[in-house]
Every structure is written in C-alpha cells, then in structure tokens.
C-alpha cells in the first residue's frame, strides 16, 4: 500500500516570509499582506485538496504594514475554531511562529498530518 503523502498549501507574506524551499512539495501562495488572509482562503485550499495549510509571515514588530501579522494571527485563530465546527481537525492549520523556518514548520506539520490522514474535504470522488 502506498504511503499517504499530505498536500500542504503555504500562504506567505510577500515581504516578510522566506520563500518555500525548492523541492519542499509545498504549494505556495504569496499574499501582498498576510493580514489579508481569510477563512475563505483556507477553506478553499482544503476544498481543493489540501490536507494541511501553513501560514508564514515575519516578526510582528517588523511588519511592513504594521498590523498585518497581528491581524493574521487573529484570523487564523478564528479559522481554527471554524474548522473544528466543520469537523476538520484544527491541527491541520498552522501559523509559523517567529524564529522557526518554513522548512521546520512544514516538516512538523507534514508528520502531524500523516498521523491524521487525508483531509475530510479533499479528494472526494464525484457521484456518477
């Protein structure tokens, strides 16, 4: 049997976050400001087949748009609660904390999601 390999979508700040490493397997989406991320973006990623979503910015005090990362943190917490209400484990959504690299956070998230299995939203077969 083939080992489950999670699909991870990365939303990152164009100005603050380091780019996704080449060959990381992350599907990367760059945002002008991480504060613009919305629950709809995360839900669409899951609906499109993501097994997990990683959100990466910079350091709150160094945000180019002053409040972007702080706003994103609040939105991610809201979205995690929403995911839970929808029956999706909130552990599938992670904000990369300051001081961690995207590579480290992605590796940890991927291992966690392997244990959880595929997302309940993605990869459903359409009825004939």
State the strand order across the main sheet: 2-1-3-4
- Beta fraction: 5-15%
Percent range of helical residues = 25-40%
Under the CATH scheme, the architecture is 3-Layer(aba) Sandwich
Distance between the termini: 26 Å
Number of strands: 4
Top CATH class: Alpha Beta
Estimate nothing, just give the exact number of structural domains.
Answer: 1
**What do we call the CATH topology?**
Rossmann fold
Molecular structure report:
The chain is of the alpha/beta class and 128 residues long. It has one domain (8-116): Rossmann fold (3-Layer(aba) Sandwich), CATH 3.40.50. It has 3 helices and 4 strands; from the N terminus they run E-E-H-E-H-E-H.
Give a short summary of the structure.
The chain has about 130 residues and is an alpha/beta fold. It has three helices and four strands.
């Amino acid at each position: 049997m083939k080992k489950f390999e999670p699909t991870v979508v990365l939303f990152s700040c164009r100005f603050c976050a380091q780019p996704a490493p080449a060959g990381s397997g992350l599907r990367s989406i760059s945002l002008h400001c991480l504060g613009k991320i919305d629950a709809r973006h995360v839900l669409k990623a899951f609906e499109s087949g993501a097994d997990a979503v990683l959100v990466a910015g910079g350091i709150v005090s160094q945000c180019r748009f002053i409040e972007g990362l702080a706003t994103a943190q609040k939105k991610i917490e809201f979205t995690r609660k929403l995911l839970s209400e929808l029956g999706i484990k909130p552990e599938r959504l992670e904000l990369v904390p300051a001081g961690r690299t995207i590579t480290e956070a992605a590796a940890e998230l991927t291992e966690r999601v392997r244990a959880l299995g595929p997302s309940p939203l993605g990869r459903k077969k359409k009825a004939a």
